[in-house]
Amino acid sequence: MPDTVRIETAKAETTTFREVMAEIIQRITEGPWGPGSLLPGEVELAEEFGVSRTTMNRALREVSELGFLDRKRKAGTRVRMAPIRQARFEMPLVRAEIEKTGAAYRYQLVSRDVILAPDWLRERMRLKARARVVHLLCLHFADGVAFQLEDRWINAQALPLATEQDFSAVGPNEWLVATVPFSEVEISFLAQAADAQMVAHLGHAPGDPVFCSERATWWQNAAVTLVTLAHRRGYRMTTRY
Amino acid sequence: MPDTVRIETAKAETTTFREVMAEIIQRITEGPWGPGSLLPGEVELAEEFGVSRTTMNRALREVSELGFLDRKRKAGTRVRMAPIRQARFEMPLVRAEIEKTGAAYRYQLVSRDVILAPDWLRERMRLKARARVVHLLCLHFADGVAFQLEDRWINAQALPLATEQDFSAVGPNEWLVATVPFSEVEISFLAQAADAQMVAHLGHAPGDPVFCSERATWWQNAAVTLVTLAHRRGYRMTTRY
DNA sequence: ATGTTTATTATGTCTACACATAAGGAGTCG
DNA sequence: CGACTCCTTATGTGTAGACATAATAAACAT
């Protein structure tokens, strides 16, 4: 026999941790491992699947990060009673969100002021008295139709550069992302009644329900920026899993 | 010298991947690795930190899962331009959400009907003609005050048990969680104008903006349940990181 | 019975090593 | 110049083995 025979070992059939994950999820969702049941130990499973314990550990860990499993030392691995308790939302830049749908993106600066922070803002951003802020109103269009109204406040003390920047060409979002280092963020979603600005720019009727997201950004305990994004009528923020 | 001296090796100083992660994040947020910069390779970093490449890989992988880094084969590891593009929301059961604030939880069934699915619902849940559904209206109270209105539809064909269940004592949410296996889920957030139900039960004025979350649940390609949760005035869904 | 220590055990993580794979870049050829 | 191949390189993932740690269960003492 020629020694080429040894090449038979092609398609090495190495079971990857992803395959193991898939099989585990299968067994949980459609198979024998119902909610609350206790899984065999890692060693036993590793043996059954023909993988090393390292790999099995990784698979189980990732499945548990998906929210399916609950793992405790000594106690073992258990299928969670309540399926998944977390929702992940991708929050791309508006530009990316619009361009992904195939629509043309356009940005427009509506107004720009450098003023003393009003009281409510001082409290919200924990600014000191007489703090100056840059106030911007911007519009984001998808194929010429207003898609999102951006109402942004920037702490001038924390970011003096912002007072010199005119945001007519490049949106504050993209500018900030390129300028400010990573920071602490607080995001909220809420429903608001359409105010004058939204009526004027987004085409709502006064008092219409508007889906808004608010984002406050901090860096080293100093507020950097606070922005409210008002979305067009009927906007939904959706995620699937 | 007594041989107890050897015990000096206590506190073995093993650098864990968590410590490495912390240091990496530090260098990104406050240190030399600004947005867009390219990190040294795993091997080099591993050497610098005095850990194995496996550990360094894990650290880098997890930091990148947090949204800080972008990793590509051959291209290397790069600091993301846009800090964090995803928001994670914990979505506990209402009961847990209310009890966490220290308030007393109370559940009340408002109405319960078994009917033919209306057209919009048939389309939304992809039910066939003449499909029967259970329609529930439920209220969740925090300290006696209406907190959330639950408008739920259950596919009677996929879940015949639901037609026999009277949901006067236990909420459909908790019942479903205990009954239905893990499933595919689609969650949306949206702003709605208060309708008659919300006015009657949540104390909104007609047309008020209401923050709603809608959740559609599937199991093996069959719709199980569709629920809309309307929140009380001023409700915000918030996350921080 | 109750509180405390001790042993056991399943998961958590580290190491060293090897091979797989994607993708940038150089070189080649038309 | 463009399209192709091939090489190189950084990350991706697998293995075996060892020790760490948390948490239960058993043994013990009060």
From TrEMBL, chains A, B:
Question: Coiled coil: which residue ranges?
Answer: none
Which of UniProt's keywords are assigned here? DNA-binding, Transcription, Transcription regulation
InterPro entries for this protein: Bact_HTH_transcr_reg, Chorismate_lyase_/UTRA_dom_sf, Tscrpt_reg_HTH_GntR, UTRA, WH-like_DNA-bd_sf, WH_DNA-bd_sf
Superkingdom classification of source: Bacteria
Return one GO MF term: DNA-binding transcription factor activity
**What Pfam families does its record include?**
GntR, UTRA
Report the residue ranges that make up the HTH gntR-type domain in this protein: 14-82
Name the SUPFAM superfamilies for this protein: Chorismate lyase-like (SSF64288), Winged helix' DNA-binding domain (SSF46785)
What is this protein's record name? GntR family transcriptional regulator
Q: Which organism is it from?
A: Cypionkella aquatica
Q: Which gene encodes it?
A: hutC
